[in-house]
Amino acid sequence: MSDVQNAMALLITSFNKYSGKEGDKYTLSKGELKELIQNELGELLGKANDKAAMERIFKDLDTNKDNSVDFGEFVNMVSCLTQMCHEYFTSKK
Fold first, then answer.
1. What are phi and psi of 19, to 5 degrees?
2. Which residue, among 58, 76, 75, has the nearest Cα to 67 in the 3D structure?
3. What is the CA angle 25-26-32, rounded to 5?
4. 61: Cβ contacts below 8 Å, ≥ 6 apart
5. Which of 2, 28, 38, 75 could form a disulfide with 69 if both were Cys (CB 3.0 to 4.6 A apart)?
């Protein structure tokens, strides 16, 4: 597999690792999203102990307002974070 295909597979695997623990296996609840952020993005975003910040993140990600984060909403977050990292590192040159 190419690097991009590996990255795609890792996104799917990471999402599925946390989704469905509290209900629908195709979405993340607030608790599942918090666990994913803490475990998978903790070094980038810091520890997700700020309840108000987690509420804002969840609300912003839940674009269809169904009180869960689906895979598309999750990928949008990862895409935005990736773009921000890219901009940060390219500005350092």
1. -75, 150
2. 58
3. 70
4. 33, 69, 73, 74, 76, 77
5. 28
Reported as type and span, the H/E element at residue 21 is none
Q: Which residue has the tokens 């803490």?
A: 38
Helix (H) or strand (E) holding 70: strand 69-70
pTM, two decimals, is 0.85
Residue with tokens 């629908």: 24
Each residue's pLDDT expressed in tens, for the chain with a length of 93 residues: 999 999 999 999 999 999 999 989 999 999 999 999 989 988 777 656 678 888 888 999 999 999 999 999 999 999 998 999 899 888 876
Return the structure tokens found at 61. 């990600």
Helix (H) and strand (E) counts in the chain: 5, 2
CA 34/CA 48 separation, integer angstroms = 6
